[in-house]
Amino acid sequence: MAMNVEGKTAIITGAGSGINFSFAKILLSKGCNVVLADLALRPEAEALVSQYPSTSPGAKAVFQKTDVMDWMQLDKMFEVAIAHFGGADIVCPGAGVYEPPWSNFWHPPGAPPSKDDPADSRYALIDINITHPIRVTQIAISHFLSRKKPGCIPHITSIAGQSPFFPTPVYVASKHALNGFVRSLAPLEYPPSPLPKIRVNAVAPARILTPLWTDNPDKMQMVGKEPGWVTPEAVAEVMLGLVEKEEWVGGTIMEIGKTVREVRAFDDPGPRGGGNNVGNDVGYQDEMWESLKRQFEGA
C-alpha cells in the first residue's frame, strides 16, 4: 500500500524541531500538506510555516499548538486537519523526550528537579513517549476508517528499543514498548474487505544531532568523543520511505545509524551487529551512582 505523498495531508507531533521538523520539511517539499503540532516552533519551523502559507498554491503548512499529554488537544489536531484539508492521510506521533531531569528515573517524583507529582500517579515521560503515540494511533485508525481511505502511521522509536542503557531506563522501556506496539499492528495493512489498509511502521535511529541532545548539557555528558551522530534529515528520508516504499510494510522497523537496515522481530543482531552501536563517555554512569549514594546516605 505504498502511498505517494503528493497532494496528501500529514499530522506530525513534535514538528517544531528535530526529526519531526525535518519530516515535515521533506513532506512539504514533496507537495504534502502538514499540520505541525507542538507546544512551540523553533525559528526554523516558524520559517517553514511562513514558506508554505495557507493562501499559497500547492502544499500548505499549519501550526497547531499541542500538548501531547492532553487527549483533547490530540483530538483538536485532527479537527484542524479536517477543517483545512478535509482530513489526514499520514499521522506521525513523533513527539518524545529523552529522560529529562523533570521526569527521570533517577530523580523520583517529588524530589527536585523532578516535576512529576506523586499525587498525580503519573510520569510525564511515559505520557509523552508511550501514552501519546498509542492514543494518536487509536484516533488515526478511527479517522481513516471514518473516511473509508487508507492511511499511514510512521512512528519514531530508537536503537534504545533493542538495547539496555543504565542512565535512561524509562526511555529505554518506552522504546521497547513502542517496538512491540508497532509490530502488533502489522496486520492492519492486510485487513479483510471492505476495510481500508492502514500501515503502522517505525524508524529506530541511533544518536541524532538534534536540540534534544545539544540543548541539554546533562545529556551531552553521556556522549563519547566520537558520538557518531545521525542527522535528522537522514532519518526523515527513511520516514518518507516508510510511507512511499512498497516493501516497508506494516510492522517494519528501520534502524538508522552508520547503516540503514530492517530490525528483525526475532534473532536480530542488535545495533552493534548492524554497525549502529553508539559510544558513551567513560563516566556516563557516575551521576546515577551518586544519586543512589545520596538516597542511601539520607535513609
TrEMBL record:
Arranged from A to Z, the UniProt key words for this protein are: NADP, Oxidoreductase
| Any one Gene Ontology molecular-function term assigned to this protein's record | oxidoreductase activity, acting on the CH-OH group of donors, NAD or NADP as acceptor
Return the InterPro entries for the record. Answer: NAD(P)-bd_dom_sf (IPR036291), Sc_DH/Rdtase_CS (IPR020904), SDR_fam (IPR002347)
The name under which this protein is listed is NAD(P)-binding protein
Instruction: Family membership, please give it.
Output: Belongs to the short-chain dehydrogenases/reductases (SDR) family.
Matching entries from PROSITE patterns are given as: ADH_SHORT
The answer to whether the entry has keyword Transport is: no
Q: Oxidoreductase: is it a keyword of this entry? A: yes
**GO CC terms of this entry:** cytoplasm
Q: Tell me which SUPFAM superfamilies the record gives.
A: NAD(P)-binding Rossmann-fold domains (SSF51735)
